[in-house]
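Ticket #318: bound-state structure for zinc ion.
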Amino acid sequence: MESFGFYWNHFVELETQNLRSLLEILGSLGGHGGQSLRTWLFQQIPLGITLSILIAGEFVIPWRRHQRKWRPGLGLDMFYTLVHTALFFLLFGEAFVTTVVLACMDAIELVTGTANNAAIYLNKVPMWARVLAMLAYAEFQSYIGHWLLHNVGFLWEFHKVHHCSPVLDVWNAQRFHAGEKVFWSLFSAFPPILIGFPPREVVSVTILTVLLSYYTHSNIRIPLGPLKYVFNNPQLHIWHHAATIDPKRNVNYGDATCVFDYLFGTAYLPEERTNLKLGFSDVDDYPTTFLGQFVTPFRAIGAGIKDRIASRPRVLSR
Ligand SMILES: [Zn+2]
Ligand SMILES: [Zn+2]
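RESOLUTION: The complex was predicted; output attached.
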């Protein structure tokens, strides 16, 4: 295990490299051409294809026909999508997650005196079985993570940003506070890598589940038949966003799959409702700008801490 300074330098070095390539990409946009821009665009292909298919689906097989395509908040959600999917890892995520994973791997080796044995074992398992196991594990973990976001006070303040949208469509799948994005980066990528799943496969599985969550938020109705008990879908997920449901006893926490909701009794689909009010009790007072939504959770958490300190019983000295 190295010193804190070592990991800090590792983070700064990676972050500098990433910011430099971001500047190169921006420079290439000015017409100089460039490898970085091409590489970056190439990395966006899965997202571009998924978004195009789902947007076409919202036109061809819409579920809520009355819902406007050009709706208030569309620009904001497009901005969230750009920042979180195309830029987050370049701006901050990759350097942060890679450094934390490295530090934890070293800590495990320090405590156990050996490299990760699970990794050696998992490398002998056929890839399809490993990916299936990882998918099941990642989805279970995502279920737990989503439950925590609703039931731990300060995490809910961050998660409220995702729930403040008055409509659901393909564009607001990425309406997340940056704090929640950091939480998910650590919570979804990091434990499977620590267990010993190969980082590349973990990243691929994470991308797959993120792409499926676009479908879950989209305004599309696909008759899934019995597969509706396996794949999460818009008809189920919309109840998770219903304003009338208590955030702490919410339902349908699943991400790509709803299997764990059915297993743990949190699946809820009383009927297919197309006119639900979405959000939470005081959603109408919630800010509607990126900056406002960025600042609000910190303010709420700060106010909560102040209240706690003020309500503490004081010990009177004699
Ligand atoms: Zn939620
Ligand atoms: Zn959602």
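RESOLUTION NOTES: The mean pLDDT is 87.
TICKET STATUS: resolved
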